[in-house]
Design brief:
single chain, alpha/beta, Rossmann fold, ten-stranded mixed β-sheet, elongated
């Protein structure tokens, strides 16, 4: 993993993403790139039809100036932090629709880290915007969602939530390509089937053998239950792991978990970063 892109929206919710990015940049000697986006389209979206009055123009320019200042401040704080940590870094200040700009720039890099709540859109300081969800649906690279966590230094191990879908297989392969498998300690392949422990074991075995071909040992954890997401999370919490790997899409119940209203609440409760790919 040579490059890591981190989304900077100037909120406290992005701080865990910066912390995690710095940790991995140190571990893998990676270049850490911070991206801030001026959401000019949303500001311009308030433009009235027809003749633009001087009053509107003044308000528009003021909002644009304030937004640029916010982005520049976030980038400056990121630069100071990276300098203090003595890691290589790069700053990107972009302008446009945040999701589109992040997805475009992500094509240059290996991985993206975002906070569990994003505030890139104009006037989203108090309420999260949908940038995270949109990015997860269309990202060309893995996305790590970093919740509000105290520290992962005391944690060890990784849970791979494997449901046998194409998405979970791709996520596992993408995870392997980053090199994170060598950094996290024991790996648990957790597979959940509604009523068959044998079938759950068969699903987990495919992921386990894939890793074994790359000289990585993993423990199979077949489980039975109707709520796959709850089983994954419970196992992760009980084992105090530092990362959960999962396909961004898969079985319907898993998809609902990640994109439902309880997404950020669950992330905050578990305090475990999620490695997602589709």
């Amino acid at each position: 993993m040579r490059t890591i892109l981190v989304g900077l929206d100037g909120s406290d919710d992005c701080l865990p993403a910066v912390d995690l990015g710095i940790r991995w940049a140190k571990r893998f000697d990676s270049l850490l790139i911070g991206i801030g986006v001026v959401d000019e389209p949303s500001i311009r979206g308030f433009q009235p039809e027809g003749h633009v009055s001087p009053t509107y123009q003044v308000a528009y320019e003021q909002l644009l100036k304030e937004t640029r200042h916010k982005v520049e401040r976030a980038l400056e704080q990121f630069a100071i932090r990276c300098s203090n940590e003595r890691i290589s870094f790069k700053l990107l200040e972009d302008e446009g629709q945040p999701c589109e700009r992040i997805l475009t720039e992500l094509q240059r890099y290996d991985l993206l880290i975002l906070g569990c709540r994003t505030h890139f859109r104009h006037a989203s300081d108090q309420h999260p915007c949908q940038t995270l969800e949109h990015v997860l649906r269309a990202a060309s690279r893995p996305v790590v969602v970093a919740p509000q966590i105290s520290s992962i230094e005391s944690r060890e191990g990784i849970v791979v939530a494997y449901d046998g879908s194409v998405q979970s297989a791709r996520a596992l392969q993408a995870f392997l390509s980053t090199g994170l498998a060598a950094d996290g300690g024991p790996i648990h392949i957790v597979s959940v089937h509604p009523d068959s422990l044998v079938e759950a074991a068969r699903i987990a075995d495919r992921a386990s053998e894939f890793l074994r071909f790359h000289d990585i040992d993993a423990t199979r954890v077949p489980l039975v239950g109707s709520s796959a997401s709850q089983k994954f999370l419970t196992h992760a919490i009980e084992n105090n792991v530092k990362l959960i790997v999962m396909g961004a899409y898969g079985q319907a119940r898993v998809k609902e978990f990640f994109f439902g209203s309880a997404t950020c609440t669950a992330l905050e409760q578990t305090s475990i970063p999620l490695f997602l790919f589709h």
